[in-house]
C-alpha cells in the first residue's frame, strides 16, 4: 500500500502570503476555491487527495491546503490519548459526521422495527442477534487472515462443533470474545480485562503460544505490514511506553459519564478502536481486540442495537480503506477525524443493510406461511417444525428434539421430519449416527403466493 503524502508544513504561510498579496490570479481562483473547500470539508479530505483534486481544478494545492488547515485548526479538540512523540490525538465534528451521530442516536439506541415501524418480536430479535454475532465473528477473523470459508465457519457455529483448523479456531475465539464483552458491560476497562480479552481471541491460533495473554515487550519486534507486498506501514510506540498508554486508554474508556467534557459515545468508542490499533499492545490480536472493544463500549453506553451490526463485514469488503483511515490520521498530526468519518460511514452502511435484511427475512417468513398454510398433508407438529425453521433459517432440527417437544414416540417424530424432507420443506443431513434437518429448498425459494 502506498503511504499517504504528509501535508506540507508551510501551507498556512503560503496561504496567508497569497491572502495578503491579493494577486489578480489568486483572486480569480478564489470562487472556485470556495466551492472546492466546501466539498473538501464535507468529505473531510486528506492532503493526499486534496493535492491531486486541487490541481485538477486549476488551484494551487498548497495555498488551498493552507486555507483548509486554517479552517480546521481552531476547531480541533485534543484528547488525553497520544500518537508518536507525545502528540495528542485530536478531532473535530464536520457537518456530515454530526448528521450521522444524530441518526445513530435515533436509530441504534431505540427500538428495532421494520420500515412500517412495526416492532419485532422477542423471537425475531433473538435470531437476528445470533446471525449478527456469527457474521461479526467470521468476518473479523477473515479480516485478520483466517483461512476458512464463511459457509464452513457458519456451519461450525451453528452445529457447535469443534474447530477443524486454525481459521475456524479464530472464528470460534472471536465469537466467544464478543460474548465475553456482552457479559462484561458493567465492568470498567482495565489492563487485566484487556489481557483476558486478547487471551480469548488468540487462544490456539498463534505460532508462538507464549504471545497469548501478555503485552508485547521491548524485545518483540512488531511492525504492521501490508500483506500484499510486506511493506511496513506502521511501527507502534516503544513497548516501554505501554504501561502509561494503557493507563490513559482505560481512563479514556471509563470516562463516559464525565460531564466536565462530553465526548459522544460513538466518538469515544471510535477513538478507543483507533488507539488500540495504533498502540498495538499485543504481539497479535490487536485488530480483533480493537473491534471487540468498540462493540463493548457502544453496548455499554446503551446503543444495544449494535448487537445486530456486523461491522467487520463492511471493513472486510474494503480493507484498504480501513488501513488508509489509520494512515491519514498518523500522517496529519494525529487528526483522528479521518477515522471517525470512516467509522460513521461503516455504521451507516451496516445500519442500512440491517434494515434491508430484516425486511427481506420478514417477507420470507410471510411468504413461507403461504407455502404451507394450505398443504393438507401437514399435521400440526410438522407445521410447528416449519414455523421454527422459517423464523430462524440457521436452526437445526433433530428427531430427538421434535420428539421431546411434542411428547411423541421416536418413530412418529422420525416420520414427521423425514416426510418434511421428502416434500422439500427440510433438507436432511447425516451427522455421525443421527439425522439433522435444515431449511429445505421449498422454503429457501419462497415463491410468492
UniProtKB/TrEMBL annotation:
Keywords: ATP-binding, Nucleotide-binding
KW Protease (keyword) present: no
Full protein name: Fic/DOC family protein
InterPro entries membership: Fido, Fido-like_dom_sf, Fido_containing
The organism's place on the tree of life at top rank: Bacteria
Record-annotated Fido domain positions: 189-345
Active-site residues from the entry: 280
Organism of derivation: Mucisphaera calidilacus
Binding site for ATP: 224-234, 284-291
